[in-house]
Structure formats: C-alpha cells, structure tokens
Amino acid sequence: MPLRTSGADTPMRAHRRFDAFRASGMVAGLLGTLSGPAYADSTVWAVSGADARGNYTGNVELIATPAGYRFIRVIGYGAPVAVEDGRSLFWVWEGTAAVDADGAVDVSVDLAKADFIKKRGDLVRTEADAQAVRVSGHFAPAGGVLRGSFSGQDIGADETWSAPEPGGATPIFEKHLSEIPTHEAIPAKERDHLFSVFSSYHALPEIQPYVNRPEFIDPIHTVIADTTDFDFYRQHPQALRVVDKVIDPISLQETLARADAYKWSLAGKAAYYDQDAEQRSIDPATGMLFEWVTDDGRGLPSHDSALWTGAYVASQYLRYQASGDPAALANIVRSTEALLTLTEITGDRRSFARTLRKATGNPLPPWYAGNGVYAAQEWKAGGNNDMYKGLMYGLTTAHALLCDQLGGYEDLCARLRYDVIQIRDNLEQAQGSGYNRLAALWLSAYITEAPGIVKKTVQEWKRQAQQLADGSHTIYVNGVADWSGTHLAAVQYLVFYLLADRFPLPDIEAKPVLRQGIEAIYGQFARVRMGLWSVAFARLGTAPHPDASDAARWRLRELPAPKPQLDIDHRVRPDYVMSPFPSAPWKFDWTRTDRTQSLRSYPMFEASAYTVYGWKQSPLEYAGDNTGLNYPGVDYLHAYWLGRALGVFSATE
C-alpha cells in the first residue's frame, strides 16, 4: 500500500478508493481538475511506477502557491529492493510544478549530492557535486489518470498518478528544520576590531574562500536543529528514507546515520550502549574504557581514559539508582578497581596514571610495566588536572553506592578509603588551594568523617564558594569557548552536588551556591544545545528550564547507535561557511595549528567526528574520519542516566 505521512510524518492510509467517497459530491470537482486549467488548493494522487531499482508505490501532492504549485513525491520500493543491512528504501522529492491548459503537469526537482560525508569507499564527493541534479517530469491526462516519466542525470522513471483526492490539513511530507542563533549580532565596531586581531587567521588558505560571504562578514554562530523523519523512523526502524538527494552509497550512509539516531527510544539506545560497554568498549583486562575498538576486535587504550572511565562509573551509579540492575553494580566494581589501580600502579603517590593496558612485555615511554600484583598490566604516565576530575568523579560515586548505601564490599571500600587519603595528602593535583583540593578534602571527609578534615574542607569551601557561584569562568562568546573545559566544569559541579547531598558540610549551604553557578553557566550557553550540560541546566539551576530539557532530549535523540563510521567534511556542502574566529583564540597559534571551526553547529548524526566522548568536543567542528573505528557511547550513558536521575527523561521515553 502506498505510504502517506502527515507533517509529523505519521503514516496514514495512502489513499481512499474513488468509490469510497463518490457520494460526497467531491468526485465531479476532482474529475474536472483533470481537464481544467488548474488543480485544487491541494491534491494528492496515488503513485505506482518503476525505475532502474525496481517497482515502487507512494503518493504525490500538488499544493497551489501564488507562483504555481509545490510538488511533493513520497515513494517506497517493494521487495526485493533493499539497501545497507537489508532495510527497505523510501525516497522523498520536493520541487515545483506547473499545469497547462489541458491539465498536464510539468515538474522540476533539484536533488542534492554533496551534504556532509566526503568519502565512502571509492566514491568521493568533488567540487562539481555541490551542483544539484535537476530532474524534470511531464505527466499528461490519459483515461482518468496521469501518466508520464522523470529524467535527470542517472535518474529515470515511468509512473502513473491515479485516484486523486483532496490534500489533508498537512502535506504528505514536511521537513522540520530550524537554525538557532547562539548569540546576538556583533556590533560593527567590535566586529571590526576582532577582524583586525584575526587578520592573519583570515589570510589562511582554509579561510580565504569564505571571507566575502555575507554570513562570514556579519557572523552569527548557529545551531541546526533537524528533526525531519523522527516519527517516520520510530515507526519504520528498518527503513531508510532519502530526502531531496540522489541515491548513492554516500547519501545512503548519510541517511543511515539519521535513521540510527531516530529509530531508538532513549531507553532503548541506553540499553544498546550499556551492553556495548559491558561486552566490547571496556577493556576486560583492566576495566578502563577504550578509545575505540577496530572491526576485528582490537581496542586502543584511551589517552584520557581516567576521565572517561570516571564518567562511566558515574553513569552506572546513576543507572543502578534508577533501575537496580545488577549489571550496573558489576560494572561499577570492575571499573572502580581500575581507577584505584591508576593511583597505585605508579609506585609514587604523588602521581597517577592516565590509563592502563594489558601487559605487552615491551613497553616504551610513556608506557611503563606494572610490578608485583600489577605485573599483568602496563600504565601510561601523565595523570593531570583533567584526568583528576574523572578520578574523583568515579571514586565519589563508587563510595556513595558500594560503601555508603549497599555495604558488602569491605575490601574494596578499605582500599578506596586508603587511596583517597593518599590522594588528599600526596597527589600533586590535590595540593594547593582550588577545586581539586576541595574535592580531595570533601571526599576524604565523607569517607573518614575525621573532624580535622571536615574543618579543612569547610575552610576550602569558603575559599572557593564565590567562584563556584559565579560559574567558574565557564563562558561562551561569539562561537568561542573552552569546550573541553565546559565538560570538566560539568563534572566538577556534579561531584560537588553529590557530595553536598551525601555529606553536607556543617553550617554550609552548598547546594544554593552550586545552583547559582549552574544558572550562571546556563546564561552563557542556553542557546548552544550542550547535551550533558543541558541535562544539568534543566533541573540543577535556580529554576527549571524546559528549553534545556528539550535541548537535552533532542541531543540524545540525535546521537546514532551504533556511532557510525564516517568520513565527514561539511565543506563539501555548497552552503558551508567557516567561522571568522579561530577556536582557542587565546593560544594565538592558528598559523601553526589548525584552529578552524564552522559557523554552524550541525546535528549529532552529522557531527564532525564521532569520538570516544562527544560532550568535550566543540560543536563547531566540521571534519573528521573515523572509518574502521567503533566508538563507545559512554557520553550518551552519562547524559541519559543523569537525565533519568533528575527526572528530565522518563523510563518509557
């Protein structure tokens, strides 16, 4: 049966049989349109036809406009036509139409080639592919139907339009696409000053093609929200629907990324990524998160695994709180042991490892062999401030569940207690006065309840409270932010929020301060659609923010499962524009280091490069190649289970 969709892409009956509404009195008017100078305001036909792929059915719709007609064509191929992993194939065209005095219809459609994937196998998008493919069609009345054909470059089809009926309240297909400004227009004087500062950046060959574009000259960085076909994929999870593009291996891969994002419920996607972590993405020899796993099953240790594994332990803590799933508990135990090993394996309590791997027998710096009980593992030097945040996050959540709430893990908890005291007293990252010191003291006070440590924690809190209330210098200005730093700030606030909940400091009201700080960061990033931060903005600021809830929900919906293997470069798009401002401009190194970034932030299924942990990536990246690499979904799990804990997402979404 031909498929018809509403504006929300909800499948309906394709068409009613002519005799089903003959008595309504409409049939004469509809038949009259087949030989008159014009059709009704909106008329829908059932379509049947064939092209080089095979037979298809569907609908076309003509919608009257002041300039002629809007044309929409939605078709689906029948068996045995299938694409990718056996999915059924649908195709949507949008264009214009004109009707002559005899009721014949001439159609014009432009189908895109270049979008966001640069290369797949031997197929490469070239500069010529920025030009759309023009498809023309002519359909003439013949015996109560319209018959005709389409033709264009590598496109040809013969089809029949029959059984016309009035269009519904919404067209048979609609795109749902918006572009959201993330900041106000930059005043001309300020813009001119910035352009002067970045004149050497504008002179770079990568930037030169864009300097005369109006969007570059008056820049406003935007976020693209594209929810097109969300409902379609929820109801057709084994389909691909190519929209306004030619069909070839690249466009199918682009379509697959959207389908594998939108076909899942939020809960179903979480279950997928939880299982992936348990079975593939966590190193069974160490408990640390891999950077990626190759198609033949080899995992690469992540340089930043202390941070990502800490986030993973936190996600499983939140998962267990929501579900009581014993698998989450086992995951916490396994990876908590890994985090503790990071602090023990170096043999020097002043330092800790970034990650671990199974012993190779021949490590070269910065890798070193473990000794004694750690002889089966090797460790990577360089534990630093960023990695410390993950260490504290994972150990805080592990203690809260295993040692404070459940019990029965005495040996692990004794080890955790000892290591936290060592972190507090010896680890270089925990010395001085700052958030790292506060986290070490507060976690130690929580674990030991030692009066002297509690007193020191209160003193450190008082030194840090105002900066926390002010948002910890987490800012966004005209497309520029320390994106990795924004994630570190999220982790830090979440650690302190959990500690304030589990071990309130005497005579200290910590949560109002933390809420004030989160609200300050929301004021900076509210329109950027931050993903993980959006979840926190929704519930942990000084007031609920429904817009942040919506942003969080759609960001997670946009993330495909599995993360696809794509070679992306948005510069193949004809409408692509570079930002006039470099990323990390404070480094002034753009003549030596690639600091280019996009003026637009694209949906996550079009993201620049799917990585081990997306929330620390700039949303303005535009190119990257991860073909052959299977990335974990701990970023999704962290945001999803936090959203479940805060009531941003329900269990049935």
Chain-wise SSE layout:
Layout: E1 3-5, E2 11-13, H1 27-33, E3 42-51, E4 55-65, E5 68-77, E6 88-99, E7 105-111, E8 117-120, E9 123-124, E10 133-142, E11 145-152, E12 155-166, E13 177-181, H2 188-197, H3 199-202, H4 214-217, E14 222-226, H5 230-235, E15 239-243, H6 249-262, H7 266-281, E16 290-294, E17 299-301, H8 305-323, H9 326-344, E18 355-358, E19 367-369, E20 377-380, H10 385-406, H11 410-426, H12 435-448, H13 451-469, H14 483-502, H15 510-525, H16 532-540, H17 546-558, E21 567-569, E22 600-601, E23 623-625, E24 629-630, H18 634-646
Parallel strand pairs: 6-15, 14-22
Antiparallel strand pairs: 1-2, 3-4, 3-12, 4-5, 5-6, 6-7, 7-10, 8-9, 8-21, 10-11, 11-12, 13-14, 16-17, 16-24, 18-20, 19-20, 21-23
Helix pairs in contact: 7-18, 8-9, 8-10, 8-18, 9-10, 9-11, 10-11, 10-12, 10-14, 11-12, 12-13, 12-14, 13-15, 14-15, 15-16, 16-17, 16-18
Task: Quickly list its features.
653 residues, alpha+beta, Lipocalin, Glycosyltransferase, 2 domains, eight-stranded antiparallel β-barrel, four-stranded antiparallel β-sheet, 18 helices, disordered N terminus
What would you note in describing this structure?
The protein has 653 residues and is α+β, with helices and mostly antiparallel strands. It folds into two domains: 3-166, Quinohemoprotein amine dehydrogenase alpha subunit, domain 2 (Lipocalin, Beta Barrel); 264-566 and 610-646, Glycosyltransferase (Alpha/alpha barrel). It is built from 18 helices and 24 strands. The chain has an eight-stranded antiparallel beta barrel. A four-stranded antiparallel β-sheet has the order 9-8-21-23, with helices on one face. The protein is elongated and about 95 Å long.
